[in-house]
Amino acid sequence: MSRPTPLPTPGPDLFRLDDKVAVITGAGGAFGRATALGFARAGARVCITDIVPGALEETRALVAAIGSCVAVVADAGDPAAVDVTFAAVDGAWGRLDVLVNNAGINPHQAASEDYPIDVWDQVMRTNLTGYLMHAKAAAKRMTQGGRGGSIIMVSSISGASALGRGNLAFGVSKAGVDQLTRELAVEWAPRGIRVNSIQPCQFLNAGLKGLVADQARARTVERMVSGIPLGRMGEADEIVGPILFLASPAASMVTGVNMPVDGGNLAFNAGGSLPAMDATW
Length: 281
Fold this sequence. Notes:
By secondary structure, this protein is of the alpha/beta class. The protein contains 8 helices and 7 strands. It has a single domain, classed as Rossmann fold (3-Layer(aba) Sandwich), CATH 3.40.50. Strands 3-2-1-4-5-6-7 form a 7-stranded parallel β-sheet, sandwiched between helices. Helix 2 links the parallel strand 2 (45-50) and strand 3. The termini are far apart. The model has no long low-confidence stretch (mean pLDDT 92).
């Protein structure tokens, strides 16, 4: 398939999303809110969803102060809610250019032999099946008129290597997201639809901020940070650049990629050690 539209002249404009329409799930959380604001600043019109009405409204108000925004209270793993989300997009703008599958849960940690199957099912429904349902709905709209589009999945380093600490369902769901990314990228490439994922390490969302503040969990926090060569957890705003890149014309030849956004975590061997700052080589 030929490129749907000419590329802008190489430079900062390649990262613009002017007049593009984007759906961003999980927009009440740190990643989703930062992404929605970043997209609005880049010129996009955004439909944001979240299962928590208050958090969603906070994001909507912030985004609406910058640009055009529609908000839908929705459970990302509910087929009926997916239909409502995309009906809102159809009604507001009649097109779709970008989907950011960001909504996700990790509600329970337990030893694998004790992991509750009902919780497993809930995690898979939200983190994996929900991503597929949104991607299917997005692809149908992106195919219309031959425009194509970009789908970005928020995965995790836990999809590429095991975190332990009882994250069984979360890690397996994110490994599924990585493979879903590859499968859809290959199948939908002839339609001009690019599909990529990002694999964040530990970022300071509400849950991790609570963990960091808990002195009783200091060793766990130290262990997490010790696996990140940059020496710190990420901040929510640091997720926006990689997602914006993958959504934008700057990534017009990028598809099927699971991109680490992890401070070097996946490049760092578990048995390795970081050199001292004053080491002599």
